[in-house]
UniProtKB/TrEMBL annotation:
Keywords: Signal
Keyword Transport found: no
Top-level lineage group: Bacteria
UniProt protein name: Alpha-amylase
InterPro entries: GH, GH13_cat_dom, Glyco_hydro_b
Signal peptide boundaries: 1-19
Lineage: Bacteria, Pseudomonadati, Bacteroidota, Cytophagia, Cytophagales
Length: 615
């Protein structure tokens, strides 16, 4: 495995990027704008929703093995367990500034691994499993735990419950996945509570659609699995013969109503029926309430009663808004403070899913993530950020979950994305501080994990695999054999993680970031000398208790020295007297207070100045 950076390059980058120079002046306040209908701010009253979420791919997090054989078994490549996420690990996560841990891949899903010798389930048919480990989004039993994650397969549910208690004891809250749209083709619940009728058990399979069917059928047709699936490459998996028996065939998870899904389809999953007749003009049948609604409510309530604190809901736009509008309040009757985060990609529907659908938070992927990614790769401008707050999530920015990495997206340090983890410094600062909504980090992001190599089914795509057994090399250096102290990280990685720690701790404790109003400074500075408004982004966050000036330089190779102008209208909005003098303390980089600064913006840098009256 290559080092993150070559030693000579690493040394120079460490000096260039992390030894942040002290800024030298901010100009006197201008009188550029009037208070009326100011286009640089919104009338949104920010709500304190500043969760700091750390996403853990549970199967990979605690794995100490480093063989990393493509398509390797769990014995060859190793697999992380619930018990690996011990008090030491949780304290290290907590000290990063985290409030919530999203444990990804907890529920039992289809896999090629055989657990029969240890009292667990046998392998699934490889014709309908993606990767040796299998996708954690192809659920095999909503009421059970993935056997891979337990030291003792027979007590896997108790080991998960112990992890929940341990997480809470360390001052953190627990989020797990809820996958409502589709299940594995091999779905069968062996762990369901007494009296629960399984999905599909009472379906009328002679019809394509019935309001109370749990699945969609293709009567008279049998499933034809794609020939190019090759879940283990050249090797054969268990029962892999291209003849998975499913008659009648069911519709695939990505709304493919064909008995012969293509290799790029979600062919390993089947679509759940919420009362929408897709093949008849999407006609809805919501009264009486479809059986699937009731079954899914019971599943959510079951896990809420296991004391989880929230659900990250997969592909929420593939499930009717009406279902969410009903089920979320139903679950909150059982646990009022439980949270629902929705994976959503259609900005035109955000308001609908927040207001009608009752979601607490939605992904800000298509807006802020995509815009920041363009900036990080040199193809975008700061106008993308302006569009997010001023148009796309205007009025509900506090409800948008911001991130730069997750299990679906490419690693920042990968050659497929930015190639350099330092590009996250300005982007992550904006992501964490632009609004008062939640922010998320994916495990390994904070040490620059590049996801090099082809793990097997996942392939060389810049992502850390969710389909294969694997050790995550740069994360393992931080894990340091279970010490979780970063003992094997190089100097640049330690500085990068220190940046994340400073940023996230500031984010979680700052009054202005948690619940402050917002004021953009682009218009006030776009004609300023040395202010490259396409690459530099600046704004204010403020409450009665705290005033912050935040500046990010996205340029990879240009040092700028702009004179920052704060207009009179912004000063007045913050409740400050434009005729008085103020000091500016960079609380992100722990720099001493200065006044009348012209700021030296090094490449890929970020600054958070606290503004206080000069004594």
């Amino acid at each position: 495995m290559k080092k993150l950076l070559l030693p000579a390059v690493a040394a120079s980058l460490a000096l260039a990027s992390f030894a942040v120079p002290l800024p030298s002046s901010i100009s006197a306040v201008s009188e550029s704008f009037t208070a009326a209908a100011d286009p640089n701010t919104t009338d949104e009253v920010p709500q304190d929703h500043k969760l700091v979420i750390y996403q853990v791919m549970t199967r990979l997090f605690g794995n100490k093995k480093a063989l990393n054989k493509p398509y390797g078994t769990n014995e060859e490549n190793g697999v992380g367990k619930f018990n690996d996420i011990n008090d030491v690990a949780l304290q290290a996560i907590k000290k990063l500034g985290v409030s919530h841990v999203w444990y990804t891949g907890v529920l039992e899903h289809a896999t090629m691994s055989d657990f029969t010798k240890t009292g667990g389930p046998g392998p699934d048919d490889a014709d309908v499993v993606k990767g040796r480990a299998g996708s954690p989004y192809a659920i095999k039993d909503y009421y059970d735990i993935a056997p891979d994650l337990a030291v003792d397969v027979k007590t896997r549910k108790q080991e998960f419950e112990a992890l929940v208690k341990r997480t809470h004891a360390n001052g953190l809250k627990v989020i797990i996945d809820f996958i409502p749209n589709h299940v594995a083709r091999s779905y069968k619940s062996n762990a369901k509570p007494a009296g629960v009728i399984d999905l599909g058990e009472k379906d009328d399979k002679t019809v394509a659609f019935a309001p109370n069917n749990n699945f969609y059928y293709l009567p008279g047709k049998s499933l034809v699995v794609p020939k190019a699936g090759n879940p283990l490459g050249a090797a054969l998996g268990p029962k892999e013969d291209g003849k998975f028996v499913e008659t009648p065939a069911k519709a695939s998870g990505n709304d493919v109503f064909s008995e012969a899904p293509k290799v790029d389809d979600w062919y390993e999953t089947v679509k759940l029926n919420y009362g929408v007749d897709y093949q008849n003009g999407r006609k809805t049948h919501f009264e009486p309430m479809p059986d699937t609604w009731l079954k899914m409510r019971d599943i959510l309530v079951y896990w809420a009663q296991k004391d989880v604190d929230g659900f990250r809901c997969d592909m929420v736009e593939m499930v009717p808004t009406e279902f969410w509008a009903w089920v979320i309040p139903e679950v909150k009757k059982v646990k009022p403070d439980i949270i629902f985060m929705g994976e959503a990609y259609n900005p035109k529907e955000y308001k609908n899913y927040l207001e009608k659908g009752k979601f607490d938070y939605l992904y800000d992927k298509v807006g802020l993530y995509d815009g920041l990614r363009r900036l990080m790769t040199g193809s975008g401008t700061t106008e993308d950020i302006t569009k997010v707050w001023s148009e796309e999530s205007r009025g509900f920015g506090s409800r948008m979950l911001r991130f730069l990495e997750n299990h679906d997206e490419q690693r920042i340090a990968s050659k497929e994305f930015a190639g350099d983890p330092r590009t996250a410094i300005p982007a992550m600062t904006v992501s964490a501080t632009l609004g008062s909504g939640p922010v998320m980090v994916y495990f390994g992001q904070e040490v620059g994990e590049p996801a090099n190599g082809s793990e097997g089914f996942s392939g060389a795509d810049g992502r850390t695999t969710i389909f294969d057994y694997w050790g995550v090399p740069e994360h393992q250096k931080w894990m340091n054999g279970g010490k979780f102290d970063g003992g094997k990280l190089d100097g640049v990685q330690k500085q990068l993680r220190d940046f994340y720690s400073r940023l996230l701790n500031l984010t979680s404790t700052s009054d202005a970031i948690r619940k402050g109003k917002f004021y953009e400074l682009q218009d006030a500075n776009n004609l300023g000398k040395n202010y490259d408004q396409r690459r530099v982004y600046s704004y204010l966050r403020y409450t009665d208790k705290q005033k912050l000036l935040i500046i990010a330089n996205f340029s990879k190779d240009v040092t700028l020295t702009p004179k920052i102008d704060i207009p009179k209208s912004a000063m007045q909005a913050m409740g400050l007297d434009p005729t008085k003098f103020y000091t500016y303390t960079d609380v992100l980089n722990n720099a001493p207070a200065t006044e009348n600064l012209t700021i030296t913006l090094t490449p890929l840098s970020a600054y958070v100045f606290e503004i206080k009256a000069k004594e």
